[in-house]
Write a structure and sequence with these properties.
By secondary structure, this protein is α/β, with parallel strands linked by helices. It has one domain: Rossmann fold. Helix content is 38%, strand content 21%. It has a five-stranded parallel sheet, sandwiched between helices. The two termini are 20 Å apart.
């Protein structure tokens, strides 16, 4: 049995988008956690210290948006690779936390997967 070493948290409030991404990463051998808002994401990160990649949308309901969540994660979990997506908002590199990547929507799922896998290999 193969040991899963790649672990990702997907934070996306649109259920269909989130489920598609969960399926994509699981089929590619990732251990996947998912959340529909920042508060849920933080609770998952607190429980699962092995998460090394977070993919988050910018716009979502709750106490903070995905950009604020990314800054929080960078400060609290510094080694985490951060990927921030949005279909409505273009972010400048000045807006992003250190060592974060912005990916505008719509994106090709397999290019996204390859880009994220390149950061953990």
């Amino acid at each position: 049995m193969e040991v899963v070493t790649k672990t990702i948290l997907i934070v996306e409030d649109e259920a269909f988008v989130r489920f598609d991404l969960v399926d994509l990463f699981e089929q590619s051998g990732w251990r996947v956690f998912d959340a529909d808002n920042a508060d849920h994401a933080i609770a998952i990160l607190d429980r699962h210290k092995d998460i090394r990649v977070v993919l988050t949308d910018v716009q979502m309901p709750g106490s903070m948006d995905g950009l604020k969540l990314a800054h929080y994660i960078r400060n609290r979990f510094p080694p985490t690779a951060l990927f921030i997506t949005s279909g409505n908002k273009r972010l400048r590199s000045d807006d992003l936390p250190e060592r974060a990547t912005f990916l505008p929507k719509p994106f090709d799922h397999y290019r996204l997967l390859n880009r994220i896998e390149a950061t953990v290999n």
